[in-house]
Design brief:
CATH architecture of the largest domain: 3-Layer(aba) Sandwich
Distance between the termini: 63 Å
Number of domains: 3
Helix content: 25-40%
Largest sheet: 7 strands, mixed
Low-confidence stretches: none
Strand order of the largest sheet: 16-15-14-17-18-20-19
Number of helices: 10
Mean pLDDT: 94
Structural class: alpha/beta
CATH class of the largest domain: Alpha Beta
């Protein structure tokens, strides 16, 4: 087994069970581990402290276990996946008749850093964000098949765009188990086409499920604008909530096609919905002030801290335009999924936009990711989704 020795004092974060070892904390490595191999981590005093997947880069080791006697094998993966499933069952999101769409594994939040698994009816979509999870994908698939039993028939691997490019892993997307083509899943009684082949993330934004359900409660009789609509999730919920008009906007024509398919799947021949393939900022600039419920759910404006300043400017500009155009008594759902932007920074950006508009604004809800996207208490960086529901006079 390869050994990673830390510099003096660099074990403190691991003593607090933080699951990352940064490259700058390493004094030396016994041997030459390949990317993705398991290494044991020792303090400068030669004391075992953790083990995990080795990787070249800023995050050098992603911790899988703090126990020296724990072997990373098929039994390890089965135990971890069973714990993840039990948690989803205990919070009432798995094994529901009206919902077969949920996240089974959320990386560090489930003590499996670098691994994401989403469930869409009979298909599990697995995504690796580390070399180690990529190399262990077949063992994980075996364990997943056993733990999920008859809940799934297919396991699709989708990691071509998520693995570190320096690792030279050349992953290929494809089925590890099964090969079913039925891509319709149910979320709280609504049906959605899931594009796990070419769609973003694992094919659907599972993390907005509870926020979509909240929006449904506010939609009755309102004129709704869903910006950055992607698959139209918020639009579908607004329709069921009784909105009198729903407009969906996305710069991607493919996203608009998918939105229209999902609307037709749930509300065939319903004339309340119209979709537009157009740049969001251009649409906001020339749109009329007819909306009294607006959703702003943009893609991450900052994927790393170097882009933070421009991202905050983008959030201010986007929200300022919404405050300018929304009807009096309107409700604004506004989000940031940028991990580099924390809650306070996002709130400040939105509050600055509100102040610029000169309108009275009240906070109705402060939103985050749902319970099947848990935040490891020892890894606060895992809290990435921020949202506000605002009442605008």
């Amino acid at each position: 087994m390869y050994r990673v020795y830390l510099k003096p004092g660099k074990e403190e974060s691991l003593k607090r069970f933080h699951p990352w070892v940064f490259s700058g904390a390493i004094a030396r490595i016994d041997g030459q581990p390949e990317e993705g191999e398991i290494v044991d981590i020792y303090t400068s005093q030669n004391e075992f402290i953790a083990k995990g997947h080795f990787q070249i880069g800023s995050i050098a080791v992603r911790v899988l276990s703090f126990r020296q006697d724990e072997t990373i094998n098929i039994d390890f993966w089965k135990r971890k996946l069973a714990i993840a499933l039990d948690m989803r069952r205990s919070i009432g999101i798995a094994d529901r008749k009206d919902n077969n769409t949920y996240r089974l594994v959320h990386g560090e939040g489930d003590n499996l850093p670098g691994l994401v698994i989403d469930i869409y009816d009979r298909t599990a979509v697995m995504q690796a964000h580390s070399a180690g999870m990529h190399l262990d994908r077949m063992a994980i698939a075996d364990a997943l098949s056993e733990v999920m039993d008859d809940r799934i028939n297919n396991i699709y691997y989708k990691s071509e765009t998520t693995l570190p490019f320096k690792a030279d892993l050349y992953p290929e997307n494809g089925f590890l188990r099964g090969g079913g083509t039925d891509n319709i899943a149910t979320e709280y009684g609504l049906k959605f086409h899931i594009d796990w082949l070419k769609g973003q993330k694992t094919g659907f934004f599972v993390d907005q499920r509870e926020n979509r359900a909240l929006l449904e409660r506010y939609a009755k009789g309102r004129s709704v604008l869903n910006m950055f609509c992607y698959t139209g999730g918020f639009s579908v919920y607004a329709m069921r909530g009784g909105a009198k008009m729903v407009h969906s906007v996305d710069s991607s024509a493919k996203a608009i096609d998918l939105t229209n398919q999902n609307i037709a799947l749930n509300f065939p021949d319903d004339t309340r919905h119209t979709a537009y393939a157009e740049d969001a900022f251009k649409y906001l600039d020339h749109m009329s002030s007819c909306y009294d419920l607006i959703i702003l759910d943009p893609p991450a404006f900052a994927k790393h801290r170097d882009a933070l300043r421009n991202a905050l400017q983008g959030y201010r500009r986007l929200n300022a335009k919404a405050f300018e155009k929304i009807q009096p008594g309107g409700i604004l759902f506004t989000f940031s999924c940028s991990q580099a932007v924390n809650k306070d920074q996002f709130r400040t950006a939105v509050f600055t936009a509100a102040a610029q508009s000169g309108r009275n604004v009240r906070i109705l809800h402060q939103l985050t990711q749902p319970a099947d996207h848990p935040v490891n208490i020892y890894h606060p960086e895992g809290e990435y989704l921020k949202g506000l529901v605002l009442y605008v006079e």
